[in-house]
Description:
Layout: E1 26-29, E2 37-45, E3 53-61, E4 66-71, E5 76-83, E6 85-90, E7 93-98, E8 102-105, E9 110-114, E10 121-128
Amino acid sequence: MSHAEPPVDRRPTRPRISNLHEGLFREVIADHGGEGAILAHRAYRREDGPAGIAFIDLVVLPPGTSIGRHRHADDQETYVILSGRGRMTLDGEEFEVRAGDVIPNRPYGEHGLANDSEGELQLLVFEAGPLGGSR
């Protein structure tokens, strides 16, 4: 006598819903050697996120804080400034950024971000890769 397998539920599952105002942000001190404590939430990790995406972070830089200058390997990290303003360093060039700016950081390039304003700087950071390219 054979046993029938239970039917497989093929309905799509709803992704887990999270809310940033309910304690999801974590404090990160001296991120990449930067100044002060910023707030960050990793919305997606390579293991959980869309194919090709290494991570997606939501980040808040309070006034006077920064993400220190740093490099990644064969990944392209992009900063999307959601609100506020600050100073970006990209491959040795420093310039002002503001809400709406999209800044791609090339593979192996150096980048950092400082909030030199009196309000919060909020950004979305996402990294794609590895890209499989050469230096």
